[in-house]
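Appendix C: a fully annotated inverse folding record. The material below is reproduced so that readers can follow the format used throughout the book. The structure is listed first as tokens, followed by the designed sequence.
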């Protein structure tokens, strides 16, 4: 497909990347895979498809840096960001058409699971408000998914069968105009290694006055169900909180940021204490203790600090 490039950032994705690449290459688009130091057979799967270009990083540079690498390697005016577990079903041309208007910066389509069912709540979201993030942190949205805050945040009131202008299509199936990507500096690599980099970018897109579209005629099937980047669930949890705090420090004022930080502490302190009394609870204590430290720093200084993973925790 002329004018379109596809960027796929991988990390231990050998089980998914083959189907993803086959569908992406079938579009005729230029495909670039950025591999963040996979230790499985991901790179071999990519090399089996010589039409795809592989950028093999010797260490995990993170999702944001990987995406920036991939976009930088392409000269196409339209770039589709695709998760390695997403299989294109069609509609790429519709995304290009939506971005042909000068005010449009990004466009996404619908996501379905392996049974063809809508991945409601993931397809498109509004930008998170402080209240929505507090509800996420405290588990309110999990215990009461139909609450008004969560319905609005996850766009439960949106007709997913109709095209619409939206805030945040899924970052794993998102087309962007390259010139606007360059204007805004791409993904912020401070969101390392994963989580909230796409939310931050799309927030900056809207703040710059550009439009973001959702088109149900474009579709991808996504497996999901495992932490991104090949991380363990404990690591993914830590990085999710780190990204949330970075996003909060950047986009919310002090009162809202303070409330979010306190909510994180309120959530994590009991979890850390439980780790003291449970067999092999040192892992729980360590992970939640580190998250509490991130929240405390954000509360006091307004900065969340860079996420780090100590050798003690890395073996999880």
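Designed amino acids, in order:
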């Amino acid at each position: 497909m002329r004018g379109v490039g596809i960027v796929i950032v991988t990390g231990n994705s050998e089980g998914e990347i083959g189907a993803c690449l086959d569908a992406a290459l079938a579009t005729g688009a230029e495909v670039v895979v950025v591999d963040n130091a996979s230790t499985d057979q991901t790179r071999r799967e990519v090399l089996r498809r010589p039409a795809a270009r592989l950028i093999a990083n010797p260490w995990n540079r993170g999702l944001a840096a990987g995406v920036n690498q991939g976009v930088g390697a392409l000269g196409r005016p339209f770039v589709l960001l695709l998760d390695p577990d997403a299989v294109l079903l069609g509609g790429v041309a519709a995304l290009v058409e939506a971005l042909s208007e000068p005010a449009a910066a990004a466009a996404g389509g619908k996501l379905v699971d392996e049974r063809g069912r809508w991945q409601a709540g993931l397809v498109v979201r509004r930008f998170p408000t402080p209240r929505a993030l507090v509800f996420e942190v405290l588990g309110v949205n999990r215990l009461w998914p139909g609450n008004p805050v969560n319905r609005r945040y996850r766009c439960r009131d949106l007709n997913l069968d109709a095209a619409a202008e939206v805030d945040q299509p899924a970052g794993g199936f998102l087309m962007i105009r390259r010139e606007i990507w360059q204007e805004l500096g791409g993904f912020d690599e401070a969101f390392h290694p994963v989580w909230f980099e796409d939310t931050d970018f799309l927030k900056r897109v809207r703040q710059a006055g550009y439009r973001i579209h959702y088109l149900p005629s474009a579709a991808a099937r996504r497996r999901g169900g495992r932490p991104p980047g090949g991380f363990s669930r404990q690591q993914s949890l830590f990085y999710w909180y780190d990204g949330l705090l970075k996003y909060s420090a950047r986009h919310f004022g002090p009162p809202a940021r303070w409330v979010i930080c306190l909510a994180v502490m309120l959530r994590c302190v009991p979890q850390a204490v439980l780790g003291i009394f449970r067999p092999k609870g040192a892992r729980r204590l360590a992970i939640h203790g580190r998250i509490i430290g991130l929240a405390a720093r954000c509360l006091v200084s307004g900065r969340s600090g860079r996420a780090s993973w100590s050798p003690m925790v890395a073996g999880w």
